[in-house]
Amino acid sequence: MPYPEIRPRRLRRNPALRRLVAETRLSPAELVLPMFVKEGLSEPRPIASMPGVLQHSRDSLRKAAAEAAQAGVGGIMLFGVPTAKDATGSGGIDPNGVLNVAIRDVVGEVGDATVVMSDLCLDEFTSHGHCGLLAEDGTVDNDATLAAYAEMAVAQAAAGVHVVGPSGMMDGQVGVVRRALDAAGHQDTSILAYAVKYASGFYGPFREAVESSLEGDRRTYQQDPTNLRESLREVELDVAEGADMVMVKPALPYLDVVAAVRAAVDVPVAAYQISGEYAMVEAAAANGWLDRERVILETLTSIRRAGAQITLTYWAVEAAHLLRRNY
Ligand code: PBG
């Protein structure tokens, strides 16, 4: 009798069989493209540590946002880089600040062809690079920061953003933002909470992208990479405070956390494949050490398989095109 009788390889024999039994499928609709816009630029500018990603001008941002919508990506996440930063990050609240202007531009351009989201945090706007306001002793003052986030959220909603993404890891930020939005008549603006955000070395290239000169580190507010259960607590709090969706960040080094969060809650779960995850693959591919396109899709598939139904990725548009070709 031939042995073995049961042969899992039978279903791997050719692409048609493999496609038929695929357990995980990616689609452009679940991908969100993070985009940077810098105040005062007339031409877009490359970001050295993120080859292929740009600091946009107002014009190039509008155009690139329209292209992303055209490619079928599910959403866009906007980050603003102001020309002048100050201790309180006032550029984030100013209705004429770079991010709020960009929101109006992009919403005007794409309408509701794709979901427009904005980062709701102070680190792009503060001279010290922290996500909040500093107390006299130099620590980040949680509750003073909440008041600033509330104002920022209302300014972003007034500019027309569909979803705000509070990402500063201050305690109570989702509740404060929800109440502020509701009080200002923006009941329909959603919150994608960066509920789980680890103090990660993988944010490195992002600092270049937003020209942040961080003094010290973020370990007193972002989470310690050793912890998993703490993330479930963060998620539980954010859902209770009114988060419509929750995010885990970074993605690839924290797939166990993505899976645990997926199992714990019923709201949509997102994961953010961050700047360092992008840079790592681009650098290896540039050296000829990895098959770039294959690895891009493999990383996105693994994030999906872990349980994220939305993925923020700097490859969103390219992946959308690759998916059309490969499926
Ligand atoms: C906070 C924010 C950061 C990122 C997204 N939102 C930086 C940080 O928290 O340190 C990082 C994204 C990336 O690295 O791609 N404004």
Automatic annotation (TrEMBL):
Keywords, alphabetical: Heme biosynthesis, Lyase, Porphyrin biosynthesis
Reactions catalysed according to its record: 2 5-aminolevulinate = porphobilinogen + 2 H2O + H(+)
Pfam families xref list: ALAD
GO function terms (MF aspect): porphobilinogen synthase activity
Entry annotated with the keyword tRNA-binding: no
UniProt pathway: Porphyrin-containing compound metabolism; protoporphyrin-IX biosynthesis; coproporphyrinogen-III from 5-aminolevulinate: step 1/4
Xref: InterPro entries: ALAD (IPR001731), ALAD_AS (IPR030656), Aldolase_TIM (IPR013785)
Regions annotated as coiled coil: none
EC class: lyase
EC number per UniProt: 4.2.1.24
Similarity annotation: Belongs to the ALAD family.
Role: Catalyzes an early step in the biosynthesis of tetrapyrroles. Binds two molecules of 5-aminolevulinate per subunit, each at a distinct site, and catalyzes their condensation to form porphobilinogen.
Assembly description: Homooctamer.
Name listed for the protein in its UniProt record: Delta-aminolevulinic acid dehydratase
Species whose genome carries this gene: Micromonospora zhanjiangensis
Gene: hemB
